[in-house]
Design goal:
The protein is mainly beta and 114 residues long. The protein is 0% helix and 52% strand. It is built from no helices and 11 strands. Strands 2, 4, 5, 6, 9, 10 and 11 form a 7-stranded mixed β-sheet that branches.
């Protein structure tokens, strides 16, 4: 059974930090990229950050300098360290896994509010 599971979301005050985790099942073969997307209420899902098996990373302009993606595609794990969070970062965050097939997790809610 293929599974992608995110965790680590929650409520945080502006300026705070959160660390999201993503673990993909070992039944997803030949993973070459893992990434994070987010979807705020009433908006389309948007790209946040990604990493490849070759070590390349990419970030949306809105999170550069504040978010860091890490992990190991060979271990089917990815993390998103989010610092200096802003209210506009509030969204459901989804993990995306690309291998022989592409898979999404169920999402984890991040709410930035005072």
């Amino acid at each position: 059974q293929v599974q992608v599971v995110e965790s680590g979301g929650g409520l945080v005050q502006p300026g705070g930090s959160l660390r999201l985790s993503c673990v993909a099942s070992r039944t997803i073969f030949s993973i070459y990229a893992m990434g994070w997307y987010r979807q705020a209420p009433g908006k389309q899902r948007e790209f946040v950050a990604s990493m490849t098996s070759g070590g390349s990373t990419n970030y949306a302009d809105s999170v550069k300098g504040r978010f860091t993606i890490s992990g190991d595609t060979a271990l089917n794990t990815a993390y998103l360290q989010m610092n200096t969070l802003k209210p506009e970062d509030t969204a459901v965050y989804y993990c995306n896994v690309r291998g022989v097939t592409t898979h999404w997790g169920q999402g984890t809610q991040v709410t930035v509010s005072s």
